[in-house]
Design goal:
Distance between the termini: 9 Å
Radius of gyration: 26 Å
Structural class: mainly alpha
Shape: elongated
Number of strands: 0
Largest sheet: none
Helix content: over 70%
Length: 164
Amino acid sequence: MDNVRGLTLMLLLGGVGVGMLTAGAVMTVRGMRGKEEIRDELIRQKITFPEKGLPAEHGRYAGRRVENGTHARVFSEMIGGNVRKATGGRSYSEISADLHAAGGKDEKLAELRQTAFMGETLRASLMSAYQAWQVTSLAIGLGAVLMGSGAALVAAGTVLSAAQ
């Protein structure tokens, strides 16, 4: 390989590698900061799993605070189960339709609609925390892949440079 082509290839590989290393580091740091923000917000909310009454599959969370995305998802599932139990499996929109059909005057349906609304709102907020947690995990993973690939390209550029 002639020197110009070899130098060009080395610079190209090295430049792309450095760019990937930089982008990967930024993604990893941003992902880690995102996780910290989510954790801090969940801890500020002081959400705690009940000591008793959890489904068997969630028993290990009894008495624990919601501190990460996985905890948020599990707590959201618990809320969803409680809402389904309270509403007989009906959704907020179904209860609202029944209330409107009753002329908006049925106090029991109005209370049930409020219960469904509050439960589903809390559930959605916790699921948003879980989804954000997943996205930050993805950013961290992709950042690590970019850094590894970038390092490999820089190494390849260095080997080519030494071969010149």
